[in-house]
Amino acid sequence: MCPFNLPMIARFSELLPRIRNWKDLIFYRPGPAARYAHIDALFAEQGIDWKLIEAHWPDLMRTAISIREGALSSVALGRRSFLSTGLM
Question: Where does the Tn3 transposase DDE domain start and stop, copy by copy (predicted)?
């Protein structure tokens, strides 16, 4: 292996997050008609609610930019979301 490839491989591996307990997750289709030959059983029958995402898009972008700029930590956001659900 060429030593010049090592940093590239190291950085590339950071872009591949591991999903824990993926069998417990629900994957949504981009639309109800979308079908996949070999992995169709992994997806729920309903599609993504694009209108819901569109309605909340400005808030989602504001939150993402705040996290990126360091004005809001993802931990604090998670804590706020958890507390606002009334589960605690």
Answer: 14-79
